[in-house]
Structure formats: structure tokens, C-alpha cells
Amino acid sequence: MILAGFEIRIDDEHKHNERREPISWNLGWSVLILVLAGAMALSAADPLAAGVQRRLDLIESGKAKRGQVLHFTPAELNAWVRVKAPGIVHQGFRDPRLQLGNGTAHASALVDFLKVRQAKGVATNWLVAKLIQGEKLVTADASIQSAHGRATVHLIRVAIGGVAVTGAPLDFLVQNFLLPFYPDAKIDAPFELADDVDRIVVTPAAAFVYIKPVYNPR
Description:
- The protein is built from 7 helices and 11 strands.
- It is an alpha+beta fold.
- β7 and β8 (163-164) form a beta hairpin.
- The longest helix has 15 residues, at 74-88.
């Protein structure tokens, strides 16, 4: 992996795991924000973020109406992330942004990996610290597939400072920077949505959460 003109070679302890362990996300479509952002108190000063949280609480409590469709616009999701992120990543992470596509999402943020590790109380050896310190633009593209109460998120591309990260270096980032924040996360593997959610549909205009309709046995 190339960072600031240096090549980082992953230690032997990471090389044996050529296949990523599946990672899980509590709510499928918010995975990406994952890559970028567990709940925190939302500021009443941001009505868009507060509105998102109210709808999420409605879904997670099982109180959403049968057959209801709840939508989350990019502006609302970005407001929610701006409020949420500081409670998850205490330092070394700023300016998160999210764009939606047809079944896809693009996320970006300015990240100082060394500060992120320090905030989690994780020790970093001197050489790696020198290579990963400093703020860098991190971007992630993912596809989201969802049906019948399940969803799957596939990472399409991750880049640091415009340089694509794949293979063992990507495994290293997942193990050291994603899993410490979302230890139960799942990537490239299906996971269950909230009990009453049938599917999530992502479009450029909004992410739509479809609540299961009333069951009418015949």
C-alpha cells in the first residue's frame, strides 16, 4: 500500500488472513457511513439529523406501520453523519460526505489514521506511525443489495489519497480501523435487517426503507 510516497508492507501476523472475515452492520444502508461513522445524542439544532434519528428509532423499535416506506435523502444522511461521527471517532476524522447512486453509495472523509488509533488507545510502532500520520482523503464505494429482510454490502473500491487499496492492505485497514469501531460488522456477506424491514432500496434521490406489509394468509 502506498501512503505519502512510502510502501507499507503488512506484518506476517496479517498475511495469513488472505480472506476477509465477514464484517456486520446493524443497519444495512448505513454501513458505508461506515466506513465512516452506535448511537449518540443528536443536537436539536440540526433538524435534519434529528429527523433521521427519529425514523431510525421508529424502525428499530418495531413501531413503523406495516407497508410504510421511510426515505432518507442525501442531505439528511449527511447531516446525521456530521452529528454522529464525533461520538464514534473522537479525533482524526472530519468532513464526512455521502453520495447515493442506483444501488450504490460513495463515502469520503479526511482521516488521520494515527490519530484514530491513538484515540482508541491502540499502540502503533514508530515506523508505521511515520507512514500513516497526517490527514488523507479516504473514499469508499459500495453496492447495496437487499430483499426479503436481508441485505448485502459489497465494497467496490477504497482509495487513500487517490490511490486504490486492495488485497492485504485493505484487510489491514478493515482489521485495524473498521472492526475496532464495528466489531460485528459484515461485508460481502448477507445479514439480517431489523425485524420489520423487508428491503432497502438506494437511489440518487434517497435511500428507501420498506417495512413489511400486513400478512394476509389465504
